[in-house]
Design a protein that fits this description.
This protein is α/β, with parallel strands linked by helices and 197 residues long.
Amino acid sequence: MSKLKKIAGVDEVGRGCLAGPVFSAAVILNNNIDVKNIRDSKKIPFRQRIVLANYIKKNSTYAIGIASVKEIEKINILNASLLSMKRAVYRLKIKPSFVYIDGIHAPKNLNIKYKTIIKGDEKIYCISAASIVAKVERDLFMIRLAKKYTKYNWHKNYGYGTKAHLDSLLKYGITKHHRKKFKPVHNMLMHTTRETL
């Protein structure tokens, strides 16, 4: 792989969730990878995403970056998302010569040439691949977490603010995995002191 072709795509997942960390993936696709089914992860069914994520991981250089709930609360969700992106890029075993970043914001002091692209997960294959890998990694993380926190339907909503999730918050209170500064959770804290373990 030539230096000119060490191009990474980066995307984050979980920014709008009420619970759980934010995940990012950085992906450098191999030259011979078949990209015909690689597109925005939100447009791909769950089972197909898992198959595609495994295919991408076998045919690329990739890395995952995570920012915790504590980091989200300390530096806000935007900065935490950018931090997770930066961690993903820096964990790549091959240093990219250029990075395509989904959205309008880029991590500070990335020290690699980059370009931000609005709706990049719909336009650039390496960003689409990153969105698939990041989403699958985060979804599987939330499914594992749901086995301990069975009342919040995280195996189905992955921490997003669905009606079932909000109903569970009202009924059972918040957990240490909930983002306390996010409006629905914050509003709930204003009216109750309950917090589960």
